[in-house]
Amino acid sequence: MFDYDDIENKIIDVLKKYLKCELSKTDSVSILFSGGIDSTILAKMSSEIVNVKLYTVALPGSHDELWSCYVAKKLGMNHHLIVPDKKEINDSISHILDKFSNMNMNLISISVETVMYIGMMHMEEEIVVSGQGADELFGGYNRYKNMAVKEFEKNSKKDYEMIFNTITRWDQLISKDLDKKIIYPYIYSELASLDIPYNFKFNNGINKYVLRSVATKLGIPEDISFKGKKAAQYSSGIYKMAKRAH
């Protein structure tokens, strides 16, 4: 029988252990911040170890422009809103397409890496904390909701391996050019080895339920912890721009 409180505490302990180890040799980090639960948890935890600056890439009028500012203010954290103009976006997309011209990138991947690239170009800190991997581990995608348990486990594992083997590789190639180092608490910690039951990830139609519960346990307000949100490439408005340019 799984104990819900025990699972929450294990998730917190694993993330704290990883962050303390990775951030032990620096005094400041940056977080690509959308205001979603994944990056908000990492922001909260990291701020207990080092100085944290949040960076949000968002177009005017987009969801992330308003929401990220609201969450950052609630957390009382240093926040830099990056509102790129059309030229910066198109130049960044061109850079991504040129750099990965021999790789199999789709439109979603291009927009993900464009957000990452623009964000890192504005970051002053050397170390970047990424929230990649949480959706795959905790059932964050809406398409998971209608899957049977075995189908979900098969698809989430496949998606996680894609993130592990491909997306992080692309991120790191970009970060190297900009003299940054990215760390991935949801991917490279011991989280993947935790045996988290399916019904802890989905509860009453709410995805990533146990992770949202972890957030409230960390003192993050419920209106933030339990708010549904699209992936940053969509909610920032960058995907639409990438679609027009691609």
Walk me through the topology:
Elements (H helix, E strand, L loop, with lengths): L3 H19 L5 E5 L4 H10 L4 E7 L5 H13 L2 E5 L3 H14 L7 H16 L4 E3 L4 H5 L10 H29 L3 E3 L1 H4 L9 H4 E2 L2 E2 L1 H9 L4 H4 L6 H4 L2 H8 L1
Helix pairs in contact: 1-10, 2-10, 4-5, 4-13, 5-7, 5-13
Features of this protein?
246 residues; alpha/beta; Rossmann fold; two-stranded antiparallel sheet
First-residue to last-residue Cα separation: 50 Å
- For the secondary structure, the number of strands is 7
**How would you write the strand order of the largest sheet?**
3-2-1-4-5
Helix content: 55-70%
Gross morphology is globular
CATH domain fold name: Rossmann fold
Radius of gyration: 17 Å
Say which CATH homologous superfamily is assigned: HUPs
Overall CATH class: Alpha Beta
User: Which percent band covers the strand fraction?
Assistant: 5-15%
Q: What is the total number of structural domains?
A: 1
* Quaternary form: single chain
Order of helices and strands: HEHEHEHHEHHEHHEEHHHH
Structural class: alpha/beta
Give me the CATH architecture, please.
Answer: 3-Layer(aba) Sandwich
Count of helix runs: 13
Major sheet, described briefly? 5 strands, parallel
Mean pLDDT across residues: 89
Low-confidence segments: none
